[in-house]
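Methods: example folding runs. The two proteins below were folded one after another, and each record is reproduced exactly as written to the output file, sequence line first and structure-token line second.
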Amino acid sequence: MSSGMALVNAEREASAMHRPFKAGDALELFDDDAPRKTYVYNNAILRDGTTGDWIGTFLGHKGAIWQSRISGDAQITATGSADYSAKVWDNENGKSIFTLPHGHIVRSVALSAMSQNKLITGTQDKRLRLYDLNAVIGPSNPEHPNGVAIGPDSANQIGSTSSEGSQAQYVELGQGIHQGSIKSIVYDPHSDFNFATACDDRTIRWWDLRDYKCTAEFKVAGSIGSCELNIIDGLHNNTPGGGPRGVLSAAAGDTVYFFDGLKPGMLIKQIKLPHDVPTVSLNYEKNQFITGSNRDPWVHVYDFHMDPMEPEVEVLKGHHGTVWTTQFSPDGKVFATGGDDAMVKIWKYCDEPYGLWGGSIEQTTNGA
């Protein structure tokens, strides 16, 4: 979620529920006509991250969308698809700005957080590409001179691609380094140079675009399910509590890993859980993290410091299939989950009124 917006794969507006909500209550977003377990999504849906209200649907992909990212200013969105392409969209009018064809399924995408003019893509065939969006020639940018390269290096291949009237150059990074599908790309929100990749070869790698090289890597014990940078507003600059500038959270097998967002490869801690974990998201302010599970359709809430006698804080029920993705909002007051039941839920994670949640825990308890 970014700037009050959320990208979800569901096609029905959330209905406002006119009662007080407590922490742990959720809004449900789903398609009433979707056959469960066989629904394939070719369209990314833009929704209000606070209320779940439908904003728009991006139409154009011809295959399932594997990943989507909103820019820091919420002006554009990038998507990666099974139709062998990545697209960049205008969030205001819903139109495709650029289509960037690839040679295989695009599993992951990331937009640079500061300048927002760089796009990185990762594919099923182990290739990592860097695009300069300012150098793409097309209907939205017809006057840009051709032949603009972003960072030639003897270890990196410069290529070009074209589709639907757009032409783009890219740099292929780290040829031969990834030994599996690149499942996630995470940009440092405070830098245009640093990002991390999570790969099916059970390795998380950190990269620096100033020399176009991998600077650190960390082997995990299982297949990586998710890898996200969790930042809660006000906790990423030597703030009270001493939290690092963001925490890179990864789920792999039955273990969750937490890395310092400032130091590539620097492990804060790893926690082994009693079940496989397809996804994890951390709220550093509350010292809690949430996961899905391969053994049930629930959202599990754990203590980051893991009291051995009482490690699980809470179990949130509502999904009817495995929860594959979780993500906290930037303010840490809500989080979103997506599951096998073709449903996205937005869960309240604070006691005070928030968005459509108009009541507090006390009001709900008293039957108000």
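Second run, written to the same file directly after the first:
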Amino acid sequence: MPSSLDEKRPHALSASSATVAVVDVEAVGRQQRRRRELRPWILLLVLWLCASYLYYPAIFSRRRGAPRRESSLAVPSVADSSLAPPQQARQQQHPVPLEIHIMSKCPDARDCLADLVLPTMERVGEKVAFRLSFIGSASDRDDSVICKHGPGECLGNMIELCAAHLYDSQPMIYLGFVMCLTRDYGRIPDQDLVMDCALEHAVDFERLNQCVSSTGGEGDDGKDGQGGMALLRESVARSERAGVTKSCTIRLDGKIRCVRDGGEWMQCDGGHTVSELVRSVEQSYEA
């Protein structure tokens, strides 16, 4: 009696079951081929995502629907009034004219320079257009100048004016030189004193001597040909036009700020200390 479980008897493969088996194999083959075809595209997609993450990290760091965070480095608006410069800063500021009128052999000139002018220039020199002028009187008979303390003072005035002329853009150089001479004003115009002070303050003695001895010929002083006597006559005339007769007179912005005469300070509206003069300069500069 035949048995359905007889393992030794070969089983017949029906047409229906054979067809199913063939279909399954073909489907698997198609899926494998499809996967092989998709691999390059998947690889390209992965590479694109990696590149996007490296170059555009903000795209991945911001969650969908989350509010966008503003950058902490906000660009200021042009119309922001808090960043607008003050009116004074927008205006071009000019140095304040500060002028002293002195005599080279005057003790009041020494005190005026040492106690007030030089310390003030050290603090606010960049805000000042400084000028050195001398007091005397021009002769009616010739081109000479009459000085209160004699011809030696006229020569001393010329020496100091030539230094200011040669170093007009460096007032601290010629002011230091003038102070050096005035500190020992009794010896002016002694040549050894002039040479020592020139050496101490980096003033070219040869050019200085050329300027003092020049008659005004072109190039005589190594700068523009204006000689010492011409400089002195011009300076004395300037003091006369300003109505200045006392050494030392300090003028700020064209007005008398302070006078040192007879060992006393006078006409010093606003005070005669360094701090008070500095404040006056700064107020005029900011006005």
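Comment on the second run: Residues 1-23, 75-82 have pLDDT under 50 and may be disordered.
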